[in-house]
Amino acid sequence: MTFFDILDILGTIAFAISGALSAMNRKLDLFGIFIIAFVTAIGGGTVRDILIGNTPVSWMQNTLNIYLIGGATTFSIIFRNKLNYLKTSLFLFDTIGLGIFTIIGVEAGIQANLQPIVSVALGAMTGCFGGVIRDILCNEIPVIFRKEIYATASIAGGICFMIMHSLSIHQNITYIGTTLFIILIRLLVVKYQITLPMFYIKSKTSS
Amino acid sequence: MTFFDILDILGTIAFAISGALSAMNRKLDLFGIFIIAFVTAIGGGTVRDILIGNTPVSWMQNTLNIYLIGGATTFSIIFRNKLNYLKTSLFLFDTIGLGIFTIIGVEAGIQANLQPIVSVALGAMTGCFGGVIRDILCNEIPVIFRKEIYATASIAGGICFMIMHSLSIHQNITYIGTTLFIILIRLLVVKYQITLPMFYIKSKTSS
Amino acid sequence: MTFFDILDILGTIAFAISGALSAMNRKLDLFGIFIIAFVTAIGGGTVRDILIGNTPVSWMQNTLNIYLIGGATTFSIIFRNKLNYLKTSLFLFDTIGLGIFTIIGVEAGIQANLQPIVSVALGAMTGCFGGVIRDILCNEIPVIFRKEIYATASIAGGICFMIMHSLSIHQNITYIGTTLFIILIRLLVVKYQITLPMFYIKSKTSS
Asked: Is the pTM of this model over 0.90?
């Protein structure tokens, strides 16, 4: 088991917990909780595998993740009140998942010999799409279009990863450095309520 | 034409009718009715084919299904008032589709040498995703998150299929037995209004 | 660079502009504008590539489109007030994209040796799915279910393409002729407010 595999496990657990808590907040039933946890944890990787043609997709070839998600969801249901009370650490779970899954996606792009800009896009999709599919299934506006600059942190991290990679820095340092970089950006963004600029179209009556 | 092919045809027709009736209830126009019928009937199989890498996906290789869906939709439009009056039999159409498509998905997983738990998941996706995509396109909360324990019946049927398969029971008996099992579960669930447990997170004011 | 490639570039730019304007109308932030422009421009082609198994999908192999979308989106942001004022030409951008992407999809189906009816369906998906995914991400009812007979124009164009193709008319003439045919249909439909018939199900109280 490589360092990469360990990161994959941590990211899967983090996203499964965030998905389960999210589903309980939406008052879904037992099945709904497991489905949302599952989708949040494997959605990004599934989209990545489909886009690059890596089929059967990863979670079908490696069933470890299915058991991890089942365990993490059960854990979330049992300790739901304790976990939610620690709202900051829940936010952290989601952010850890975003950071880890972004680098896994970028790495997959590099392995598939895709160009740097495509690898960065693949990393952002791997990091963000679990949450996007979760929100679409729940009929909400996806997380990436809400205020927190979710995907922007992921893209910035992907660019950071490509730079460190091109400088031939040791792989594990690149992994950890990029993950922490993404987590840091998201924390700063939320703490200082940084938002991206918006561009309105003037209505005709005023022009 | 094998027994398996006949089941595939029956499932496709059943889902196309349920999709068409659903679209007419939502007051979509002629094109919308055909699209929703088509998506409901082929959505699950398409997701299955994409996940296991069976491309071009089935309905592109076997155009029979396209004509079947067209015929079933036309039939539904002509007899729309009669069909809807028989609301029970409509519910039955959808349930028949669920039962048949679940076993087709599980069988596809077994053929692709996937592990039992993955095959069961694939069966549930094949059975449920047509309805999920239909609901997403119509901007509604997907059927699997509403009250009827839709997907749970599918998963229970998948497990039943795997057990019968491992006992080397004759294939056709496994197909019919599992399909009837899924239909039975769903009928019982609706008749006795069985629901899965829900887990609420205590709000902070009460803790 | 063939005539086909030029059409692909024009279609991508047209859809990116329509996506960016659409996102600004929905008051998304800078990142949201780029994402929606990107999804609108590459969504249809991505679905097409996934369905026929052409992976990694096109935009991953040819990064030119990514830069084109970036440029077109930046252009749209800078000239947003001027572009919106020309609402007719915006509608035209979207219609041009629909026309071009439809024929690209049909051509892809022919290249993959799919049957005519499947190629037409593939063309309609390539033309329409960018807009569908854009609308799903924004939590709106997809464009194809609203009034404008969007997809019907695309399907009619696909059939027109197959007829011209079977008559061995020169490729480029087929491309241009079909694209103009689709644009013409959509313009006429909007101008004369043509709608497809609807079929209501009688409510039980009245039967």
From this structure: no
